[in-house]
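Notes from the 1:1 (GR / supervisor)

We went over the backlog. Supervisor wanted to see one worked example end to end before approving the batch request, so GR pasted a single chain during the call. The sequence is below; no edits were made to it. Supervisor asked that the structure be written out right there so they could see what the output format looks like.
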Amino acid sequence: MGELFTFFGLISHDKTFIYMTHMLLSAGIALILVKMAMSNLQMVPRGAQNFMEVYISAVLKIGVDVMGEENARRYVPLVATIGIFVAIANLIGIVPGFEAPTSFLEFALTLALTVFVYYNFEGIRRQGIIKYFKHFLGPVWWLYWLMFPIEIVSHLSRLVSLSFRLFGNVKGDDMFLMVILMLAPWLLPMIPFALLTFMALLQAFIFMMLTTVYLGSAVAIEEH
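Structure output shown during the call:
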């Protein structure tokens, strides 16, 4: 099976070049969308402003349910940015001639590593290093020796889960689309586009939701 055709591939077939150009394109589209939403703010929102306000309100509501209103408002810029960036990066792969940067493991792993480092940093900063890692020990003192390594492995598995779930699902969608385009390049691809769009948005939502849950668990540790 040949490589998926991309417009940027006409310039260079280098994997890093393809990955970087599509990642920058995704970031550029996200910035343009935000700029359009903020360029002419109105009391009665329309167009891009209306879409962005609905989106931010939904992200904030999810955050409030997970970590409370104060923390949700604190972290909504990060979570909303991740959500819209990943969604656009996923959706680009559905457009013939482009490839989703999230179908590259480097992108998914870097994004997952960023979330992993940030939520642990916030947990330590907000809770203090002793209280934060004390949570890893569990509620029963004589099981500390067992619970601590289990918690460490559990947190490291989040890094693997975040990256490989996003990468695997988007890569699979790209391969599915490539097969469809090879078999019936004109009419048949229109049928699965709706499903691929739904899957792209779903994977962005899952990544955003997991980021919210991990942040919430890190900054809202209760005393045992």
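Supervisor's comment: Helices lie at 15-39, 47-67, 69-92, 105-127, 129-134, 144-183, 193-219.
Batch request approved.
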